[in-house]
Write a structure and sequence with these properties.
Blueprint lengths: L1 H11 L3 H6 L12 H16 L9 H10 L5 H4 L4 H12 L8 H11 L13 H13 L3 H12 L3 E3 L1 H6 L11 E5 L4 H17 L2 E5 L21 H13 L10 E6 L5 H6 L15 E6 L1 H8 L3 E5 L1 H8 L8 H10 L5 E5 H15 L3 E4 H6 L24 E2 L5 E3 L4 E3 L1 E5 H5 L4 H18 L6 H10 L3 E5 L1 H7 L7 H29 L10 H4 L4 H4 L8 H9 L7 H14 L17
Parallel strand pairs: 2-3, 3-4, 4-5, 5-8, 12-13
Antiparallel strand pairs: 1-12, 2-11, 6-7, 9-10
Keywords: Allosteric enzyme, ATP-binding, Deoxyribonucleotide synthesis, Disulfide bond, Nucleotide-binding, Oxidoreductase
EC number: 1.17.4.1
Pfam families: Ribonuc_red_lgC, Ribonuc_red_lgN, RNR_N
């Protein structure tokens, strides 16, 4: 019997790809063969990973070798006693972690694990990578290092790709997922933008640029009419920069550009994504986004003409860049101002063109300008988003002299991201600790990031301490609990889950501010400082509307925040502040999930 079993296993481990492919075939009972995928994991580890892994006689020998050979950053390990480091690695290896799918194992060993410099042999397994990430983010705090290790190994918390890929490595990219930068209407800013695209893409992150402030094609330069080339040539330069730079070959450069719907170049901007566009203007790899205010929809509803305003004139008349003007609020005023040149386009024709381009290319992304600014508790204006269109933060302009030095360093945006797995988080033995650990881990990413090659990014990060705690696997949790997607129970659960996350995330940020005696810049001008932000939670009934959802939170041992808890948090925040300007987002998790 033992021989027969061994022979069967030998045959099955010959081709893990074939075993994984059997997921697409139903068994005799008409069921998906999940067992074949588990066999594929075992086969992959046994026949590929282990034979191609470098082994050591002890963890101590392994760490010494990795440091001496330039693989691990010794400064990370030196923040702890060596006994603690060895103990934490041992703890991680006895956690019982096992890849649940072949795709997960394949993705980890092809994209995340540390390999020898020739790329042929593996130097880490999953527990090793998790431990190095935890040691890096905890920055010498043994308790936090242990908590981060447990949260990652349990699948409750997963840092974003740049963080999980790069932590603890001697030769690495940055820990940040993406960046958002403004471009102002001058050659110095455009030149800086191209350099920033190269520098940030090289360091490993998607980069988005705001083009709304650039003067349109045909606008005057130094009062000479019809001189400006508009936004398209700038887009072509950025696209070439992203194609050239990547993160040591580990991550392809990727960029996005955002343009306001009332910019005179908007139709030319959209047409760059047409399949039959002239090669001189066609944009192949750059992602496009359009910023649309409420007024555009009102004009379309009335079948009216929409005015497209010259950014050059708007800045000249209003004394601030076009992107910083609330178009819906000032629309009639702008239309009536004869000093501002404008073109007209039927609003419905604009939406028709936008829909056509979306059908052909999937672009553009859309950011609803007034919607996001109404929800924004921070002083300033949100005028763009990022490559994945989930980041919504305020920014401010930079100014330069002729040699491109900063005369005023504005605040641009970096994305410090990680996500909680909703299904595993609902199973957490300590929901509050899970959220707090994730927020502290992501705050460490912000604290440790110093992008000196782009000073406006460094300044923005240092001022905001912004993080983006995301969520994933909502569909998996709902399916596990027998809840139909989009049902009243699903909506009820989603609403209350994020409600609970928000309270715990804000509380952790308040604790960080209290511990450090520091808040994000601009806290005193925010709706947090005035207490206004909290009024939405001190009113209404924030309890389960369905019995099913009430049972889920009770079973998980999660206490939903009460009005009294919100009132206490409001008072604490008004007294101590919060450390992070932004706390949550919902980033895509194609790889880390």
């Amino acid at each position: 019997m033992a021989t027969t079993t061994a022979e069967c296993l030998t045959q099955e481990t010959m081709d893990y790809h074939a075993l994984n492919a059997m997921l697409n075939l139903y068994d005799s009972a008409g069921r998906i063969q999940f067992d074949k995928d588990r066999q594929a994991v075992d086969a992959f580890i046994a026949t590929h990973v282990r034979p191609n892994s470098v082994t050591f006689s002890s963890q101590q020998q392994r760490l010494n070798w990795l440091v001496n050979e330039g693989y691990y950053d010794e400064s990370v390990l030196n923040r702890y006693s060596r006994d603690f480091v060895i103990t934490l690695f041992a703890h991680a290896h006895t956690s019982g972690f096992r890849f649940q799918t072949f795709l997960g194992a394949w993705k980890f060993y092809t994209s995340y694990t540390l390999k020898t410099f020739d790329g042929k042999r593996y130097l880490e397994d999953f527990a090793d990578r998790v431990t190095m990430v935890a040691l890096t983010l905890a920055q010498g705090d043994e308790t936090l290092a242990l908590q981060l290790t447990d949260e990652m190994l349990s699948g409750r918390f997963q840092p974003a790709t740049p963080t999980f890929l790069n932590c603890g490595k001697q030769q690495r990219g940055e820990l940040v997922s993406c960046f958002l930068l403004r471009i102002e209407d001058n050659m110095e800013s455009i030149g800086r933008a191209v350099n920033s695209a190269l520098q940030l893409s090289k360091r490993g992150g998607g980069v988005a640029f705001l083009l709304s402030n650039l003067r349109e094609a045909g606008a005057p330069i130094k009062r000479i009419e019809n001189q400006s080339s508009g936004v398209i040539p700038v887009m072509k330069m950025l696209e070439d920069a992203f194609s050239y730079a990547n993160q040591l070959g580990a991550r392809q450069g990727a960029g996005a550009v955002y343009l306001h719907a009332h910019h005179p170049d908007i139709l030319r901007f959209l047409d760059t994504k047409r399949e039959n566009a002239d090669e001189k203007i066609r944009i192949k790899t750059l992602s496009l986004g359009v910023v649309i205010p409420d007024i555009t929809f009102h004009l379309a509803k009335e079948n009216a003409q929409m005015a497209l305003f010259s950014p050059y004139d708007v800045e000249r008349v209003y004394g601030k860049p076009f992107a910083d003007v609330a178009i819906s609020q000032h629309y009639d005023e702008l239309v009536a101002d004869e000093r501002i040149r404008k073109k007209y386009l039927n609003a419905r024709d604009f939406f028709q063109r936008l829909a056509e381009i979306q059908f052909e290319s999937g672009y553009p992304y859309i950011m609803y300008e007034d919607t996001v600014n109404r929800a924004n508790p921070i002083a300033g204006r949100i005028n763009m988003s990022n490559l994945c269109s989930e980041i919504l933060q305020v920014n401010s302009a930079s100014e330069y002299d002729e040699n491109l030095d900063y005369t005023r360093t504005g605040h641009d945006i970096s994305c410090n991201l990680g996500s909680l797995n909703i299904a595993h988080t609902m199973d957490s033995p300590d929901f509050a600790r899970t959220v707090e650990t994730a927020v502290r881990g992501l705050t460490a990413v912000s604290d440790m990031s110093h992008i000196r090659s782009v000073p406006s990014i460094e300044a923005g990060n240092a001022a905001s301490h912004a993080i983006g705690l995301g969520q994933m696997n909502l569909h998996g949790y709902l399916a596990r609990e027998g809840i139909a997607y989009g049902s009243p129970e699903a909506l009820d659960f989603t609403n209350l889950y994020f409600y609970a996350i928000t309270w715990h995330a804000l509380r952790t940020s308040m604790l960080l501010a209290r511990e450090r005696g520091e808040t994000f810049a601009g806290f005193k001008q925010s709706r947090y400082a005035s207490g206004e932000y909290f009024s939405q939670y001190l009113q209404g009934n924030w309890q389960p509307k369905t019995a099913k959802v009430g049972e889920l939170f009770t079973r998980s041992g999660i206490t939903l925040p009460t009005r009294e808890m919100w009132a206490q948090l409001r008072d604490d925040v008004m007294r101590y502040g919060i450390y992070n300007q932004n706390l949550q987002t919902v980033p895509p998790t194609g790889s880390i999930s």
